[in-house]
Amino acid sequence: MRTHIHEVTDLDKRIIQRAEPYLKHLKETGIVLGRSMRKAAAVCAQEAENAVRDTLERASGADRGVFGADTENHTAAGKKNYAVITGASSGIGLEFAKRLSLEGYPLILIARRRDRLEVLRRELGTECLLLPADLARREDLIRLCEDLVGRRIDIFINNAGFGVSGPFVATEVAREIGMVDVNVTAQHVLFKYILHRMEAEGGGAILNVASSAGLFPAGPYMSGYYATKAYMASLTRGVAEELRQAKSPVYVGCLCPGPVNTEFNDVADVSFALPGISAEECVDYALRMMARRQTVIIPGRQIRAAVIGQRLIPTALTVRITAAQQKKKMEGPAGKLASEQTIS
Ligand SMILES: NC(=O)c1ccc[n+]([C@@H]2O[C@H](COP(=O)([O-])OP(=O)(O)OC[C@H]3O[C@@H](n4cnc5c(N)ncnc54)[C@H](OP(=O)(O)O)[C@@H]3O)[C@@H](O)[C@H]2O)c1
Fold it and tell me: How many Cβ atoms sit within 10 Å of the Cβ of residue 288?
């Protein structure tokens, strides 16, 4: 049973104290957070108190499930909390939206192309809140965090991202920094913000969509993209271990697909060297592995074998083989020769 807590408890104070250095750092690095973010901390604190009560009430040891204690609770009552998906207008994110809508989650969908999100909402016919945002823009990122305040989240799919290909000396720096803003900065900030909230609320699941590219030592001719994905893979693995040691009720995982047939290639201006799997196959596998609380999820047998295989050969050789694969991608039907690469 839920009760409203009006006074500030010790738990509230601890949560707000923990959030303070993080908020301070974001401000110093140029992400200015408004009052709503502080309100978020207060909401978290209250929800944390509720979560503690729920846990005590259910101290009989009921199975918590991958998506947290509260999800189970709400499922039993026939109501689930939000599943939030960034990059929901296409590809892997769109497929997550379809699957999670079928599983009964109300959705919050994020991407730049509002028209695409509106079509998806009509197609799904289930509860969908659209929060269009350009995650490369700090002000949109802040507004998104503020818009999520007070909305209880069971699942967060941190998916929006894109690639830039070409030799590092030739690629356009603005485009690459845009990629770092979306693939690293926005994913990092949202990961941390949602994790704070889920910890306070007593459970939830976060899936960071990185790439198998992040599990290889380097990716010549797509070097920046590989580096952004290595960042998210490493971050997720580290945080997952911290959460395991702290016996956190929150699950975090990292999806590391190889080629998936989406709009990714058109955006990155490449074509795959290996045959791609479908977004349906990718998401189906991801959801099954999330249910097993797997930290690093690699859909597709071929790419799983490649990731394991590369550990057995010298790093320099792996990098050369990857370079050859990347060159093939740029010279394929959708790609342009490296020397005439234009990034659009
Ligand atoms: N396809 C693959 O082979 C593959 C393999 C490994 C990993 N991945 C990763 O999977 C994720 C999804 O990619 P995908 O394959 O599904 O590609 P996709 O079909 O091109 O979808 C990318 C999604 O990200 C969104 N997005 C891109 N830039 C954004 C921005 N600035 N602000 C907000 N949203 C933005 C796009 O929405 P809008 O354009 O409407 O903003 C779109 O919904 C990416 O992180 C990608 O790196 C893909």
Answer: 12
Residue 262 CA, ligand 1 centroid: distance in Å: 8
pLDDT in tens, 254-271: 999 999 999 988 888 777
Query: Which tens digits make up the pLDDT trace of 38-75?
Result: 555 554 444 444 444 444 443 333 334 445 444 444 44
Residues with CB under 6 A from ligand 1: 87-93, 111-113, 116, 133-136, 159-162, 182, 209, 211, 257, 259-260, 262-264, 267
* 209 Cα: distance to centroid of ligand 1 (angstroms): 9
How far apart are the CA of 294 and the centre of ligand 1, in A? Answer: 22
Q: Where are the domains of the chain?
A: 62-340
Cα(225)–Cα(122) distance, rounded to whole angstroms? 33
Give the pairing type, strands 250-255 and 82-86.
Answer: unpaired
pLDDT single digits (tens) 159-198 = 999 999 999 999 999 999 999 999 999 999 999 999 999 9
Q: Please report the pLDDT score of residue 331 as a whole number.
A: 75
CA-proximal residue: ligand 1, atom 23 (nearest): 87
> What is d(CA 263, CA 203) in angstroms, rounded to the nearest whole number?
33
CATH class label, 62-340: alpha beta
Q: Is 225 one of the annotated active-site residues of the chain?
A: yes
Return the amino acid letter for 301: R
* 78 token code pair: 């026939």
